[in-house]
Amino acid sequence: MTTWRVLDIIKTSTDFLEKKGVPDARLDAEILLGNVLNKNRLELYLFFDRPMAKDEMDLYREHIRRRGTREPLQHIVGETGFMNLTLKTTAAALIPRPETEILVEQILRLNIKPGARILDIGTGSGCIAIALAQALGSANVLGIDVSQEALELAKENALLNDTKVGFQEVDILTSLPNIEERFNIVVSNPPYIAPNEKDQLQAEVAQFDPAMALFDESDGLSFYRRFAEIMPDLLIPGGHFIFEFGGRPQEKPVLNIFMEKGFHDLEIIQDYNGNPRIITGKYLP
Fold first, then answer.
1. pLDDT tens per residue, range 53-73
2. Are residues 221 and 111 in the same domain?
């Protein structure tokens, strides 16, 4: 019977993942092996000659098989990092991505007073809402989503991170959240991919992220048109909004939507790759 060492299994699984077209195949092989052995990547380098037990090999082979189908790494290990949080990840919601951290970072740069009210539209895993609630302490944060499954995941993540956030099931395209007061800040990473762009997506996204969190059934701009209509119902005078959008092709159309509705202090913010990614503005009646 073959005795597999850590070094052998990393090389073999890396070759397998590369043939399946998996980006960063060696990195993923190491992360998945570390998950099985409960070791970080640095520790793996200290145990390259360690033999693998049968139960470890069985579990690791299943991990690699799943990754070879292009199932996201985060779904296989069951969690991901976002800001200073560790969040549970499932197929119920988008996997939190580094670009979305920019939304949180930009909000934290505002002069936010204690007790500020913040609305996160399309909260998904709860990553934005939970990160803001944890960072701001006294803020009252509400996350809304059309998906009950996503809301259950968000509630679980809030509990895991010992953070208080309110959640409501709301279809923002047809309804408004049930609130007594308007918000100081409204934030969202809405669906902004047009259906005809599906073929351009990575397999991990197209096959495993929930379609309702990715695709706008029209031209990718439906949510921004809706946001421009309802911000006066959601924001206090002087309140801020900050929304993610789909990069350079959507920059001018999104900006025009909010300019035509008379919003103030509009600004486009770039992502970590230098692409336009965020629009911010202020509601002044």
1. 889 889 999 999 999 999 999
2. yes
